[in-house]
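Field log, afternoon session.

UNIT: design team B
ACTIVITY: writing a sequence onto a fixed backbone
BACKBONE:
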C-alpha cells in the first residue's frame, strides 16, 4: 500500500514527477501528473481505475485536483486540503 508521504506521481509517458505542475510530454503536449495508486486499497491508477475531478479553493492556488479510486471510493486531493483552505459553495436558485 502507499503511504501519503510516499505517493508517487506519474505522467502518461511513465516519468515520475512532482505533483501540482504541468509537464511537457515528449510529443509536445502538456500533461498533469496523477498519483500512481490508491493509498487505501493499493489499486494502480490509470484509465478506468480512477475518476478525476476538481474543487475550487481560494487558498490552494485556485484548485485541488481530486483523484477517486473506483475500487474503494477513496479520494486524494492534490494539493492536500489544509486547515486554511477555503472552498466557496455554490447555490442554485
Amino acid at each position: 500500500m502507499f503511504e501519503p508521504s510516499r505517493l508517487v506521481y506519474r505522467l502518461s509517458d511513465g516519468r515520475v514527477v512532482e505533483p501540482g505542475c504541468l509537464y511537457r510530454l515528449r510529443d509536445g503536449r502538456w500533461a498533469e501528473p496523477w498519483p500512481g495508486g490508491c493509498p487505501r486499497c493499493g489499486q494502480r491508477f490509470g484509465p478506468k481505475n480512477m475518476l478525476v475531478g476538481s474543487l475550487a479553493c481560494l487558498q490552494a492556488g485556485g484548485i485541488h485536483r481530486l483523484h477517486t479510486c473506483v475500487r474503494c471510493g477513496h479520494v486524494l486531493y492534490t494539493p492536500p486540503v489544509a486547515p486554511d483552505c477555503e472552498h466557496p459553495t455554490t447555490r442554485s436558485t
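LOG NOTE: Residues 4-78 form one domain.
NEXT ACTIVITY: expression trials, pending approval
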